[in-house]
Amino acid sequence: MSIAFGIDIGGSGIKGAPVDLTTGELIGSRKRIPTPEKSTPDAVAEICAEVLASFDVDGDTPVGVSLPGPVRHGEVLFMANLHKDWKGTNSDDLMTRALGRPVRTVNDADAAGYAEVAYGAAKDKMGTVIVTTLGTGIGSAVIVDGVLVPNTELGHLEIDGHNAESRAASSARDREDLSFKQWAKRLTTYYAHLEMLFSPDLFVVGGGVSKEHAEFLHLVKVKTPMVPAALRNTAGIVGAARLAAPPLTVVTP
User: What is the pLDDT along the chain (253 residues), one digit of tens a residue?
Assistant: First the structure.
C-alpha cells in the first residue's frame, strides 16, 4: 500500500490522516484539533505537528498540508482566514521544520479539486476540469490533463461589475434568502463566464451545499457537463496527501 499523510488547515479546525494513495481513502479516523485563536504560522505549525504525532507514520511518508490561501513556490501570497503574519511566510520551510520532515504546502481549493480528479467525481477525466467550492466564497481549482494549475482564485472574477463570489457563493443565497431557482440564475451567469473563458470539459461543484445538488444543479443552464463533488469533507486531506507524493503534478505560474 502506498501511503501519504494529509493535513487540512481551516479557520476553525486542523484535520489530518494517513491516505491510501491507491484508493484515496483515509486510513482510520482523522484527527481534528481546533485552530488556535491566535493563528500565527508558528502556532498553527505546532498543531500540525501534534496532528501528525497522533499517528504512527514512517519517517519517509510524504506529508502535504493545505492552506486557506494561495501558495507560490512555498510562499503564502496572502491569507484571509488566519493571522496576518502568514503573508510572505515560506510555508514549506515552516512546516518542514515543525514536522521534522519534508512537507509540501498547497492551496486548500487546489487540494480539494485535485482530489476530485485523482479519486472523485472527475476521476480519469482528461481535458480541462474546473472544480469549484460554493461556500462563504467560491474556491476554484483548474486541472488540465491531470496537471494542476494552482492559485486560480476564480471566485474573484469581476462579472457585471461585481466580485463573482459576492453574488454567486452559497453565502449570498443565505444572506439574501434566495430560492434555489433564483440562485441558479446567478450560478448560470457565473459558470457561463467560466465556460466562455476556459471551454472546460467538466465542472465539478463542491462545498457544503453540494449535498443539495439535486435542488439546483439541473437549473444551471450551461453547455458544459456539471457533476457534484464526491469526496466532500475528506477532499482537502486527500488532495494534500496526493500532491505531496511524487511525482508532483503541479505547474507553477
Answer: 699 999 999 989 999 999 999 999 999 999 999 999 999 999 999 999 999 999 999 999 999 999 999 999 999 999 988 999 999 999 999 999 999 999 999 999 999 999 999 999 999 899 999 999 999 899 999 999 999 999 999 999 999 999 999 999 999 999 999 999 999 999 999 999 999 999 999 999 998 899 999 999 999 999 999 999 999 889 999 999 999 997 644 444 4
On whether the CB atoms of residues 145 and 126 are closer than 8 A, the answer is yes
- Distance, CA of 190 to CA of 205 (rounded, Å): 12
For the stretch 56-92, what's the b/e string if a residue is b when 16 or more beta carbons lie within 10 angstroms of its beta carbon?
Answer: ebeeebbbbbbbbbbbeebebeebebbbeebeebebb
Joined together, the cell numbers standing for residue 170 give: 452559497
Q: Look up residue 164 and give its amino acid.
A: A
What's the whole-model pTM score?
Answer: 0.91
Q: What is the greatest pairwise CA distance in the chain?
A: 52
The single-letter code of the amino acid at 236 is G
- Contacts (Cβ under 8 Å, ≥6 apart) of 162: none
Cell triple for residue 6? 494529509
Query: Residue 228: what are its φ and ψ, rounded to 5°?
Result: -75, 150
CB 77 within 8 A of CB 69: yes
**DSSP category for residue 30:** P
Asked if residues 170 and 187 have their Cβ atoms less than 8 Å apart, the reply is no
